[in-house]
User: Which sequence fits this backbone?
């Protein structure tokens, strides 16, 4: 187990290195580059620009710049935001909580709802409900998330006035109920795509397990169908879903960006968009790295949990 | 090979299999719906604008914010009094073109990378597939927005950028297929005759991976249309006054109370288009998979 852990950790670290080089090259090779924010201000001469470029080390070769940047990143110095001179790491972590709240709550919703829909579709295969669930999932995957957000706001905020149209909380109201009321719509909007994916995979995973010999044996020895469904079928069908959950992180992050924009939610996605608008290179770069780290952690956790959950898996 | 007298000439095995796949596809109701909707959308966007009384850029200040079916503009008008139907159709030309062309580019990139990686394997294969892994670590919307915001793209650039964030799945699929077939007898035989690597890769091996490529490409059209909508909605894609389905939703949130149709109509059209391509992709996957369940 330790060997497996170390191996996977090493692979992830190497991949992260590759990812950081890719992100760095991307942002620095694009026209404008990190200087474009300064080029926007009035009265800048070429000499001024050259001086700033020299101060920032931008006149050195790209690999050297990368190594300098990498050293700072590893030591925890992620630079300062161009916007308010705050340390980038602090800016990002102060937005991380809101995004994680959104991602975790919508994942919980998606897992519960998706499992239910998927199991139902598998037991009552080819029924009207199964057919509707299939079509529903495909349409859910096709709806632009931001537009779904607008429709939900139109119905529940504008017309019915049941829920607040945006923000994470009412200022001055610290109650849990207030937080939940703000959370409902962004959470549902973000869960839309994941519920669809989850229910589809759950259905096919269930169908695979239902056909297994041990399920037939369980039925044959007279166990209650409900018992077989929960203890034998569902438990085994959930195993591949662990992997799926781990692979969902990039999708969730992308969805969170959209949901946060529609619902003015103060998370990482909004921060990313604001920083792009301001050409705030250090923050944009930091956010790209954080999103890649979250993705890798998701994959890693899924791999480890899978081994823990399924004793049949042999570690190579 | 000649047919027995008195029997109809049997079709060669290959085309018979294709015929069966086509029949399975034609029986897939959702896929047929998708095909019909795509054909209607493409024809509508190509032909209808000329037949409409309003141009998509015509500003009609006497009929601003006209609700659908409540005046001269059939599907209503926007804050400048421009005709929504005309704008939807003209936007469709842009959005559908971006979707198709981005799909073509991303498929070509994915196929080339996948073929090389699967054929040579070893260090080259590992390096290329790690590149795929690395790109997949970024949420594609983050990557897309970063590129679009920093480049301020023209229409061809935007299409290219969308393609650059969508080739990874095709590359993985093709890599897997080629890798699995690399050591088969028919490949070794052609290699022994002295065929070049390029011939082996693209003439002998690649045709065996067509089915999953077609499926992935179809789903990529849907994805590209969605991505264009996201980027344009956020203001980094197609720039006004040129209409795209995404940028028609730009200011829709402000007018949600007073003119909800501004938000509802473009979104509904995007959903229809994307769902149609997803339906077709799903139908193709079922039809092209020989292990397909006969009951559906």
Assistant:
């Amino acid at each position: 187990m330790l060997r497996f852990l170390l191996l996977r950790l090493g692979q992830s670290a190497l991949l992260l290195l590759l990812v950081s080089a890719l992100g760095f090259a991307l942002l620095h090779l694009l026209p404008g580059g990190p200087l474009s924010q300064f080029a926007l201000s009035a009265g800048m001469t070429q000499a001024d620009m050259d001086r700033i470029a020299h101060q920032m080390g931008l006149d050195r070769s790209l690999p050297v710049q990368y190594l300098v940047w990498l050293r700072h990143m590893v030591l925890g110095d992620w630079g300062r935001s161009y916007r308010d001179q705050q340390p980038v790491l602090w800016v990002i972590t102060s937005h991380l909580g809101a995004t994680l709240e959104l991602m975790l709550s919508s994942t919980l919703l998606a897992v519960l709802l998706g499992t239910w829909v998927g199991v139902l579709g598998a037991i009552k295969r080819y029924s009207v409900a199964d057919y509707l669930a299939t079509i529903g999932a495909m349409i859910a995957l096709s709806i632009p998330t931001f537009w779904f957000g607008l429709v939900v706001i139109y119905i529940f905020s504008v017309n019915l006035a049941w829920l607040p149209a945006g923000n994470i909380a009412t200022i001055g109201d610290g109650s849990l109920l207030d937080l939940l009321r703000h959370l409902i719509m962004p959470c549902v909007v973000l869960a839309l795509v994941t519920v669809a994916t989850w229910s589809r995979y759950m259905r096919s995973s269930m169908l695979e397990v239902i056909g297994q010999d041990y399920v037939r044996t369980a039925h044959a020895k007279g166990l209650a169908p409900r018992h077989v469904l929960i203890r034998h079928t569902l438990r085994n069908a959930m195993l591949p879903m662990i992997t799926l959950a781990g692979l969902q992180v990039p999708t969730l992050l992308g969805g969170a960006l959209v949901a946060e924009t529609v619902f003015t939610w103060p998370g990482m996605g909004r921060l990313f968009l604001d920083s792009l608008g301001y050409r705030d290179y250090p923050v944009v770069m930091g956010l790209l790295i954080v999103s890649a780290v979250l993705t890798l952690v998701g994959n890693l956790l899924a791999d480890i949990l899978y081994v823990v959950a399924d004793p049949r898996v042999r570690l190579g | 090979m000649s047919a027995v007298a008195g029997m109809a000439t049997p079709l060669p095995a290959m085309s018979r299999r294709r015929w069966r796949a086509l029949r399975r596809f034609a029986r897939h109701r959702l896929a047929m719906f998708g095909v019909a909707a795509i054909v209607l959308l493409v024809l509508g966007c190509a032909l209808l604008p000329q037949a409409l009384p309003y141009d998509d850029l015509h500003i009609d200040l006497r009929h601003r914010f006209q609700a659908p079916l409540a005046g001269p503009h059939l599907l209503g008008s926007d804050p400048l009094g421009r005709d929504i139907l005309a704008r939807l159709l003209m936007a469709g030309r842009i959005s559908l073109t971006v979707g198709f062309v981005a799909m073509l580019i991303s498929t070509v990139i994915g196929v080339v990378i996948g073929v090389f990686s699967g054929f040579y394997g070893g260090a080259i294969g590992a390096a290329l597939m790690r590149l795929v892994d690395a790109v997949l670590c970024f949420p594609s919307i983050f990557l897309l927005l970063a590129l679009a915001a920093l480049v301020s793209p023209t229409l061809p650039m935007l299409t290219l950028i969308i393609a650059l964030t969508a080739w990874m799945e095709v590359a993985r699929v093709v890599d897997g297929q080629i890798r699995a077939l690399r050591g088969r007898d028919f490949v070794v035989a052609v290699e022994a005759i002295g065929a070049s690597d390029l011939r082996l890769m693209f003439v002998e091996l690649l045709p065996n991976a067509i089915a999953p490529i077609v499926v992935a490409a179809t789903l990529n059209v849907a994805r590209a249309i969605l991505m264009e909508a996201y980027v344009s909605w956020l203001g980094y894609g197609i720039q006004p006054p040129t209409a795209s389905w995404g940028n028609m939703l730009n200011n829709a949130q402000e007018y949600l109370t007073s003119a909800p149709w501004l938000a509802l109509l473009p979104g509904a059209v995007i959903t229809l288009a994307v769902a149609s391509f997803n339906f077709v992709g799903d139908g193709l996957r079922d039809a092209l998979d020989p292990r397909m369940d006969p009951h559906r």
Notes: Chain B has one domain: 17-292. DSSP finds eleven helices and no strands in chain B. Confidence is low (pLDDT under 50) at residues 1-8, 292-296 of chain B. Chain B touches chain A through 46 residues (CB under 8 Å).
